[in-house]
Amino acid sequence: MHRIHTAIERRLPEQRLFLRSDTETRFVRLRPVTQAVALGGSALVMAWSIVATAILLMDSIGSGSAREQARREQANYETRLDALSVERDKRAEEAVAAQERFALALEQVSSMQSALLASEERRKELETGIGVIQATLRRTMTERDDARTQLADLSASVSEGPKLADGGAAAGHDAAVTLEFVAAALDRTAAERDAMERKALDATADADEVAYEMRLLEERHNEIFTQLEEAVTISMAPLDKMFTSAGLDPDNLISQVRRGYSGQGGPLGPLLPSALPGNDDGAERAQRILEGLDRMNAYRMAVEKAPFAMPLKSSFRYTSGFGPRWGRMHEGTDLAGAHGSPIYATADGTIVHAGWESGYGNLVKIRHDFGIETRYGHMSKVRVEVGQKVSRGDRIGDMGNTGRSTGTHLHYEVRVNGAAVNPMTFIKAANNVF
Fold it and tell me: What are φ and ψ of residue 50, in 5° steps?
């Protein structure tokens, strides 16, 4: 210690601070140790100030960069959402236009089938008329031949008239009258025969024209059927893929929808042209197209009843996905947004729970068809009641921060037959189609 004190005294010799007044003089002795302690304290204070200032400056710069990056990511995400919304609306418009084209094509097919049936009836009438004309023509020709034979006999009788003994002049006069009558009958018969021949030729031309029109109608009929078959096939493929991607069996969904909408009845009308004998190929193709359109209609109903929509339409960001989190299973997707943001039902269904539940806070449960249930947790306000029927897009509550939650967000769950599945599976599957 003596050596340390000596070393400090060499570098920091003892100092005296004199304090002088009118009557006396005093001094304060500053020992080397005191000076060393003062200098060390001052150095520590200065070093702490520098380090604290640097830390604060670096934290401010880092937080500013993080906020700027978060803003950029949010802007990019909102831009992507807007693009997806526009694309979805465009696909929905295309689907509506396709349905309108289907309806128009079916109407054209119906009118063409009616025209084809009328042409068939007209062809049968013409064939019947041609048969009658031919029979009449044959009868007329037979009568003409008979008349010629009688004329020949009468001519022979007239030539033998002078040899007759009694009444020769009267018989000759009667024969002449008869000959004139037969000649007039032959002229009329020939005129009728010519008229019948012209009618037969006209009927044959009409029959050929009707047959040509029928061939054109059949070709147009086949072309429309081909277009309809291709359109149905192209429209069905993405719908099958959407349901399969969501883990749902399309055939099972279609059968359930048909069981739910199976009413029949009403008076029975006449057979459609496609169902008449002799048009089996067209009937089978029309039946296949109608079955495809019926399947598409069932798909449309199934889409409304399955949660393929987004529960939020305002700006938000994903804060936590489906899967393990902090050693426990997170059975839904968290979507953070502004407090009070509207929350919408993602499919048609019935409210089975609307109120407080531990952990979820204010919770709404909706039971849908096909064994599907959706849950919407941490709401600030519930706007539905148990037993209420809701449709896809109906507002059911507001976003909040109730229950076990660290901030304002929506906890969205999808359960199939009681087991939780990733909600993004349904949302992404729908984005590929709509």
Answer: -65, -45
